[in-house]
């Protein structure tokens, strides 16, 4: 007799994405948008990775909590994620901080961002909650994490990265026993506890949590009644459960989705300008560590209806060309040369210009004879003719935001100050 396959747990789960953070280390890139709304990879936004993981895992109920400068994010979600249908038991809720609990209270922490919407969540009657950070780049099958949670009878299951031990000092670190039960949770430890089977590595929290919904709501109500709590999962909820319940670590390598071209489990926090630039430029490699061309695990996003990219002019010194580069639709490369660059939708790059290791966000205009090296150009910037960036570090630092690794972030405000 054929054994019956278990029903996917994702069908009875809700993904709740915490997308309210500013991401201040991205500097001017988050002056007008929250970190999850920052553009990434030529067509997508950072939040699309967590949302796509949920959708591809089989989860059909999703909530997104927003707070800081949310308009760009909300507009993107409305345009790109509006295909869920209530008659198919699907839902997609955008949940801005709206003072639903108190007329003076916005979301006070990550746990409060869930608690304030408890009635909405409970109304759906889902068995499980998958709490996600909306600001990381990775591909992961949450069904596998849900299955571990149920099989082990855990109160909370926490997604964890294996990182070299002394690189874990900036993370929340799980101290686990031989069965990956969490016996202590340490925030940014100077001497991170090692993994028993890998003494040179530590388990760092990914900010991904799985709970049974009823248990989570009990914990959130208990926490909300504690005047000493900061209303945060990492600082309050998780340490309490580690001490008083059963918390289990889920290693990312067990559920990381990889195509045949991806050798390592890929996860990036693109939280600094350098990390953001590197992760984008890495996509120009012949075989990048992150395969965004994987049709078995697509990254869904708002797909604008745009004409194809266009390369024009074929004269010596004035040839529209791109080498080891990604160029999105509606771009016109007019007699300019791109090398190892990533160009988002709607760019215009004019004659005799060269872009080398450039990340150019949507709708930028690069004037003639510009020479730009190791730059991130914010959305809609108009680069003046003849601008040179990347040759004189001192001059670059006076005019633009120049990072420790020599990457220049360029915004329209900075350009306007040049006049």
TrEMBL record:
Alpha-D-glucose 1-phosphate binds at residues 107, 172, 187-188, 205. Its EC number is 2.7.7.27. Residues 16-284 form the Nucleotidyl transferase domain. It is an enzyme of class 2 (transferase). The keyword tRNA processing does not apply. Residues 307-410 form the Glucose-1-phosphate adenylyltransferase/Bifunctional protein GlmU-like C-terminal hexapeptide domain. The keyword 4Fe-4S does not apply. One of its GO terms (molecular function) is glucose-1-phosphate adenylyltransferase activity. InterPro entries: ADP-Glc_PPase, ADP_Glu_pyroP_CS, GlgC_bac, GlmU/GlgC-like_hexapep, NTP_transferase_dom, Nucleotide-diphossugar_trans, Trimer_LpxA-like_sf. One of its GO terms (biological process) is glycogen biosynthetic process. It catalyses: alpha-D-glucose 1-phosphate + ATP + H(+) = ADP-alpha-D-glucose + diphosphate. Keywords: ATP-binding, Carbohydrate metabolism, Glycogen biosynthesis, Glycogen metabolism, Nucleotide-binding, Nucleotidyltransferase, Transferase. The record marks 67, 106 as: Could play a key role in the communication between the regulatory and the substrate sites. Pfam families: Hexapep_GlmU, NTP_transferase. Pathway: Glycan biosynthesis; glycogen biosynthesis. It comes from the Bacteria. NCBIfam families: glgC (TIGR02091), PRK00725.1 (NF001947), PRK00844.1 (NF002023). Involved in the biosynthesis of ADP-glucose, a building block required for the elongation reactions to produce glycogen. Catalyzes the reaction between ATP and alpha-D-glucose 1-phosphate (G1P) to produce pyrophosphate and ADP-Glc. Homotetramer. Belongs to the bacterial/plant glucose-1-phosphate adenylyltransferase family. This is Glucose-1-phosphate adenylyltransferase. It comes from Neoaquamicrobium microcysteis. The gene is glgC.
């Amino acid at each position: 007799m054929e054994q019956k396959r278990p029903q996917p747990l994702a069908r009875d789960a809700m993904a709740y994405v915490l997308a309210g953070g500013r991401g201040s280390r991205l500097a001017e890139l988050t002056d007008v948008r929250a970190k999850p709304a920052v553009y990434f990879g030529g067509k997508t936004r950072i939040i699309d990775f967590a949302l796509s993981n949920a959708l591809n895992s089989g989860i059909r109920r999703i909530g997104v909590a927003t707070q800081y400068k949310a308009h760009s994010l909300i507009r993107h979600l409305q345009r790109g994620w509006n295909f869920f249908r209530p008659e198919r038991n699907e839902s997609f809720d955008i949940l801005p901080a709206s003072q639903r609990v108190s007329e003076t209270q916005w979301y006070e922490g990550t746990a409060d961002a869930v608690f304030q919407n408890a009635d909405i969540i409970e109304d759906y009657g889902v068995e499980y909650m998958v709490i996600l950070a909306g600001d990381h780049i990775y591909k992961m099958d949450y069904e596998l994490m849900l299955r571990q949670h149920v099989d082990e009878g855990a109160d909370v299951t926490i997604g964890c990265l294996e990182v070299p031990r002394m690189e874990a000092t900036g993370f929340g670190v799980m101290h686990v026993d031989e069965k990956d039960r969490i016996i202590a949770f340490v925030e940014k430890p100077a001497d991170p506890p090692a993994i028993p089977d890998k003494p040179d590595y530590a388990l760092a929290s990914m900010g991904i949590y799985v709970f049974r919904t009823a248990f989570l709501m009990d914990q959130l109500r208990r926490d909300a009644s504690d005047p000493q709590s900061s209303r945060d999962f990492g600082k309050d909820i998780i340490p309490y459960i580690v001490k008083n319940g059963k918390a289990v670590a889920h290693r990312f390598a067990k559920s990381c989705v990889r195509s045949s071209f991806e050798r390592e489990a890929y996860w990036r926090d693109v939280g600094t300008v350098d990390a953001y630039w590197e992760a984008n430029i890495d996509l120009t490699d012949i075989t990048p560590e992150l395969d965004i061309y994987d049709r078995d695990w697509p990254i869904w996003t708002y797909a604008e209806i745009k004409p194809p990219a266009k390369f024009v002019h074929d004269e010596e010194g004035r040839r529209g060309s791109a080498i080891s580069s990604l160029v999105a639709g509606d771009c016109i490369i007019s007699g300019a040369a791109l090398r190892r660059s990533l160009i988002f939708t709607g760019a215009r790059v004019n004659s005799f210009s060269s872009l080398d290791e450039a990340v150019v966000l949507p709708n930028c205009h690069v004037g003639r004879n510009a020479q730009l090296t190791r730059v991130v150009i914010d959305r809609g910037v108009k680069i003046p003719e003849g601008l040179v960036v990347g040759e004189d570090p001192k001059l670059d630092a006076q005019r633009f935001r120049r990072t420790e690794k020599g990457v220049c972030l360029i915004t329209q405000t900075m350009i306007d100050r040049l006049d």
